[in-house]
């Protein structure tokens, strides 16, 4: 936007969208903050008036709070690490000319179209079931004791399920980025004596840094609020109670809207801390 | 050392034979230019020499050693790409140092060579910038810098000046020629611009559809083009190629005469014609003359300024000393 005129024109054109988004965001946010200062127990008397910061103190001092923050961060971090590493590798692989590349690309993208609830159920019953799951059969084939995944390695299992869902997204974005890499740069590096791994490290990876940033930021937003995967697998047991799940339990299982709303505000704070942290680390990639 | 010999080298993409078997020898220290129309296979030939494409047949020898299956990095050649192919996320210094870093040279030596190349190419003030912050000519120089620090046995240039504006192109042309005189390294230079070919080359290789039409020094090609294609391609403005009943006296299928070898007169001459557009360059005037005998207008070059009004009648006389005669196959026989 170079000129004064184009800038103000841009502002006017953007205004409806900005106002709509603001409304969309502000109304629920205000309601959450509103309820968080109330004692509101729908099945036990309804609105029982203002309580000040009571809900905040109770939510924060509850023994479930810190473990839930930790579980949230572990899941987000684990999924990000897995999807980025394998996403980059898959993208590099799918960028190679090979037989049946078109079909493989579609297959790779397929998991993204499966609803979270469905995919979690499929993983739980088909793969991770300690009696009939495919993993159990595989373990038995090698004479090992089947692992009851969702209770013994619950966090890891959830990370695996969620990663499987998000890997296509990461791969897709990284693949388009890798395809935009000028092949002459790779050839120049080849002539400069860089072997394949160094070409990947010095040319391809820096080229992908911006796409990786985008993937990290977008995924973080969605991963902070994963719910269905936990709901249909462990129901928050075995250390998989994330902040989102904790809020759900407070609001719907304990029927305490005020307490849950206070948790919601904490979730917003956590999301912002994570966002600031990420922007510090990777956000500078977006500048240039 | 940088003697490159192509022995029956050929290249096909699938069923399409882009370069039929071809022989060529490039001597050490020579500035060789590949020139030809777009799509004739110049880049492909250069990439074959660089090792970026596998040949479909034949051998490449570099300094008497068979390099046909040697990977690009081991051939000791440096290439400057048309798009420059600079590494966008590295500073100019890191770009130039990259090949040395890959060769695991020690830090002090890398710094010394980078500083040296930068001062030769007037890049010292820009060493800490990114390629995106440089002008086209500066990027071009960085690409050349990245090539010279390796001290290769030959440089390969693929249309390095085609992204520059006309004035800058003339400047860079001189700089590259200067560099060649100083380094005395073999250079292979691809261009479709015959002016670049004529001004820079020790040896020009004219290609058409993957076939070498002629190899020779610029003046050899100018004086004695082997066939109609070379005759029409080398020289600016283009040679006038004439055929038809009007030239029966010359005992040739086609005759060629360069614009500078035609005398123009308002009173007498061999061919009569009417004056078309005149292009005034100051030092020269190019007059386009439409002759009834030939379908194409003839171009005539006149020294200095000449005023002929559009549509007036003139007479043209070709200089018999510089007349090229071609047979029905397009080959020159005198
Ligand atoms: N990877 C490829 N696959 C198939 N055909 C190709 C490939 N690369 C080049 N060609 C074909 O080979 C021919 C020669 O291409 P090349 O790039 O060598 O032309 P060029 O002489 O460099 O032309 P220009 O002056 O336009 O750069 C062209 O007809 C082109 O279509
Ligand atoms: Mg080319």
UniProtKB/TrEMBL annotation, chain A:
Topology with respect to the bilayer: Multi-pass membrane protein
Presence of the UniProt keyword Transmembrane helix in the record: yes
Listed name of the protein: Sorbitol ABC transporter membrane protein /mannitol ABC transporter membrane protein
Chief localization: membrane
GO cellular component: a single term: plasma membrane
Family membership noted in the UniProt record: Belongs to the binding-protein-dependent transport system permease family.
Domain ABC transmembrane type-1: 69-278
Annotated TM spans: 12-37, 71-94, 106-123, 211-238, 258-282
InterPro entries reported in the protein's UniProt record: ABC_transporter_permease (IPR051393), MetI-like (IPR000515), MetI-like_sf (IPR035906)
Subcellular location as annotated: Cell membrane
Keywords recorded for this protein, A-Z: Cell membrane, Membrane, Transmembrane, Transmembrane helix, Transport
Keyword Transmembrane helix attributed: yes
Domain of life: Bacteria
Entry's Gene Ontology BP terms: transmembrane transport
One Pfam family, short name: BPD_transp_1
Automatic annotation (TrEMBL), chain B:
ABC transporter domain ranges (all copies): 4-234
PROSITE patterns tied to this protein: ABC_TRANSPORTER_1 (PS00211), ABC_TRANSPORTER_2 (PS50893)
Keywords: ATP-binding, Nucleotide-binding, Transport
SUPFAM superfamilies tied to this protein: MOP-like, P-loop containing nucleoside triphosphate hydrolases
One of the Pfam families matching this protein, by short name: ABC_tran
Gene3D superfamilies in UniProt: 2.40.50.100, Nucleic acid-binding proteins, P-loop containing nucleotide triphosphate hydrolases
One GO location term (cellular component): maltose transport complex
Gene Ontology molecular function, alphabetical: ABC-type maltose transporter activity; ATP binding; ATP hydrolysis activity
Signal peptide: none
Keyword Transport: yes
Family, similarity comment: Belongs to the ABC transporter superfamily.
Name of the protein this chain belongs to: Sorbitol ABC transporter ATP-binding protein/mannitol ABC transporter ATP-binding protein
């Amino acid at each position: 936007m170079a000129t004064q005129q184009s800038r103000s024109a841009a502002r006017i054109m953007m205004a409806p969208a900005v106002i709509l988004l603001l409304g969309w965001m502000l109304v629920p946010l205000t309601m959450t903050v509103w309820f968080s200062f109330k004692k509101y127990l729908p099945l036990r008397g309804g609105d029982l008036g203002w309580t000040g910061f009571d809900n905040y103190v109770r939510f924060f001092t509850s023994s479930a709070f810190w473990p839930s923050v930790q579980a949230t961060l572990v899941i987000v971090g684990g999924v990000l690490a897995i999807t980025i590493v394998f996403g980059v590798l898959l993208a590099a692989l799918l960028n190679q000319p090979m037989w049946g590349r078109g079909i493989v690309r579609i297959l790779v993208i397929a998991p993204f179209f499966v609803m979270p609830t469905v995919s979690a159920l499929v993983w739980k019953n088909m793969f991770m079931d300690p009696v009939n799951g495919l993993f159990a059969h595989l373990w038995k084939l090698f004479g090992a004791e089947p692992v009851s995944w969702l209770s013994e390695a619950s966090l890891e299992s959830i990370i695996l399920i969620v990663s499987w869902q998000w890997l296509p997204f990461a791969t897709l974005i990284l693949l388009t980025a890798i395809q935009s890499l000028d092949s002459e740069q790779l050839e120049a590096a080849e002539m400069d004596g860089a072997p394949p791994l160094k070409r990947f490290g010095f040319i391809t990876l820096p080229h992908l840094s911006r796409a990786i940033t985008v993937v990290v930021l977008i995924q973080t937003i969605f991963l902070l609020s994963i719910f269905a995967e936990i709901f249909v697998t462990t129901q928050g047991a075995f250390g998989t109670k994330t902040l989102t799940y904790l809020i759900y339990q407070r609001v719907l299982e304990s029927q305490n809207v005020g307490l849950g709303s206070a948790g919601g505000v904490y979730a917003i704070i956590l999301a912002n801390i994570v966002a600031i942290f990420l922007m510090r680390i990777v956000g500078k990639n977006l500048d240039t | 050392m940088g003697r490159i010999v192509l022995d029956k080298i050929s290249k096909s993409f699938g069923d399409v034979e882009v370069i039929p078997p071809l022989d060529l020898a490039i001597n050490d220290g020579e500035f060789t230019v590949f020139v030809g129309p777009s799509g004739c296979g110049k880049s492909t030939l250069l990439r074959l020499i660089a090792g970026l494409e596998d040949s479909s047949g034949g051998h490449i020898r570099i300094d008497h050693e068979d390099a046909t299956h040697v990977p690009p990095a081991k051939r000791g050649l440096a290439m400057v790409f048309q798009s420059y192919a600079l590494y966008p996320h590295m500073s100019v210094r890191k770009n130039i140092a990259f090949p040395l870093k890959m060769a695991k040279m020690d830090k002090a030596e890398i710094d010394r060579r980078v500083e040296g190349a930068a001062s030769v190419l007037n890049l010292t003030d820009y060493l800490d910038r990114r390629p995106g912050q440089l002008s086209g000519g500066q990027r071009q120089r960085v690409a050349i810098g990245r090539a010279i620090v390796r001290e290769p046995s030959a440089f390969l240039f693929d249309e390095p000046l085609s992204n520059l504006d006309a004035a800058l192109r003339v400047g860079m042309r001189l700089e590259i020629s200067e560099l060649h005189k100083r380094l005395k390294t073999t250079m292979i230079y691809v261009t479709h611009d015959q002016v670049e070919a004529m001004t820079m080359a020790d040896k020009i290789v004219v290609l058409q559809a993957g076939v070498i039409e002629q190899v020779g020094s610029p003046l050899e090609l100018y004086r004695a083009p082997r066939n109609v294609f070379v005759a029409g391609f080398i020289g600016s403005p283009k040679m006038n190629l004439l055929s038809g009943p009007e030239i029966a006296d010359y005992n040739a299928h086609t005759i060629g005469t360069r614009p500078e070898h035609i005398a123009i007169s308002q009173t007498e001459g061999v061919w009569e014609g009417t004056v078309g557009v005149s292009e005034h360059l100051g030092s020269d005037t190019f007059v386009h003359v439409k002759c009834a005998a030939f379908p194409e207008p003839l171009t005539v070059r006149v020294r200095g300024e000449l005023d002929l009004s559009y549509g007036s009648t003139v007479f043209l006389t070709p200089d018999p000393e510089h007349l090229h005669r071609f047979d029905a196959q397009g080959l020159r026989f005198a």
